[in-house]
Each structure stands twice: as structure tokens, then as C-alpha cells.
Amino acid sequence: MRAFRIGMSRRMETLEAAEKESLQKLRQLPEGRLRIDEKRGKSRYYHVFGQTAKNGLYLGEDKIDLVRSLAQKQYLSNLLKSIRKEKKAIENYLRSYPSTSPEEVFAKLIPARKALVTPLFVEGEDYAKLWQAQPFEENPYLPEEKLFSTKRGEKVRSKSEAMIADTYFDMGIPYKYDYPVEVGNGKKKYVDFAVLDVRNKRVIYHEHLGRMDDPAYVCKNMTKLNEYRRIGIFTGKNLILTTEIDGCPLDMASFRKNTAELFGKALP
Question: What is the reported pTM?
Fold first, then answer.
């Protein structure tokens, strides 16, 4: 899996940087090691030279800086051993990792074969296409109110929703508009957007509340958001909320920037 290999490569870069920094700092630390003798809740420190030496030279309170340096030296030494073990484990694992991952088996099929197959493992663009192609029940509520066109050629209910949809489209982020969500007891609500986070293979929901200066509208949507929370859809986890009122429109520049950061995309 490409994402896994990228993750391992980044981990190796982190480990190599930490290894280099540890070695540099170790060269600046004093000879010897620290022995700590704890009795009756008090710690006494000793500076020990040589691997076979046991007792060492007592270090009083006036030598606390030396004590800290020796403790740091032991920590860095242990850290260095752990880093090198993990690097070796990653190298060995990647060396034996198959050239074709389960996710890539489908990706390598020609289009004609892909059309005939239902994959069990899929990622990236193929995953996005399969998700986008899955049909869903359209919202039957006042379809005639969908008056605004998007770049993808669909109709939405407001100018702001059209701009939101176009932002997702321009960034290559798969989305579905007016998407049904089961909220319990066979009841459905229709979320403005269901958006696919391809990197993490999860769906994030997006509600745009465009009339926050209308008390009846606010009450209706607060009830809707409470129903979402009861089924595990809430801000901070998997729900994006955007709002606006008359005279204070949606800040599209900020929305585009935040969307690019959330989904790992470049600004269009």
C-alpha cells in the first residue's frame, strides 16, 4: 500500500533525524555514567567511570548540573539503541514487503477488468471513484428550490452551497449533496454534503447553516444537530459546520484554506 510505504519512509526520516541529534548531543556530554542510590526516600548521586566500576564519586548538591548531564547521557544512549532497533526492523520489514500490496491488485487491472470486479481492497483514486459511484436516495423535499448550478452540473439550494460544492470539486475532493443519514427509528435527515476523506477512508459530513439570523431556522437545525450527535456525528470528529447571516456572508477564502489543510490538498 502506497500510503503505508510513505508513512514508513517518513518514520525513517524522523528516526534518522533523532539519531543524528542524539549523537551530536552525546559528544558534548561528560565521561562516565550516573549511579543513583535511593534510601529512605532520598536520592544520592555518584559519578562512575568504567563499565565494571560500582561505587563512584559522590556528587553533592553543588554538582547538580553534572548529575543532570549524566542522566541526560544515559537517556540519549538508551534512546539511540531504541532508534537503531526500530530502523533495522523497518528496513527488514520493507525488504520483505510484497511488491504488489492487496490494495494495488485492483489498481493494476485494466479498466475493462475493473468494470467486471467488485474489489475487497482498494485505495486512492479507485476508492474515490467507487465511493462516488454508489447511488443514494435523493432528498424529496422541495426539489424545485434547487436553483443554483455547480461546476459538476448539479443543482443546489443556495449560492453559498454552490460555492462550497465548487470548492470541493476544484480540489478533487469527492462529495455527495443532500445525502441521507439514518438518525434512528427509520427516520432520515439529509445532510448538505457527505465528503470523502480519501487519505483516511472516512466520510466527513458538512452542514451549511445559511440563515442563522432566523430563530425558527436556528431551532430546526439545532434539533437536527442533536440528532446527529446521538448517532456519532459531531464537530471535532466528523462534522464540518459553516454559518452565515444576512450582512455577514461565508468567508470563502478561509473555507478554502481550511478545506485544503483538512484534506491535504493544494489551494486551487
Answer: 0.70
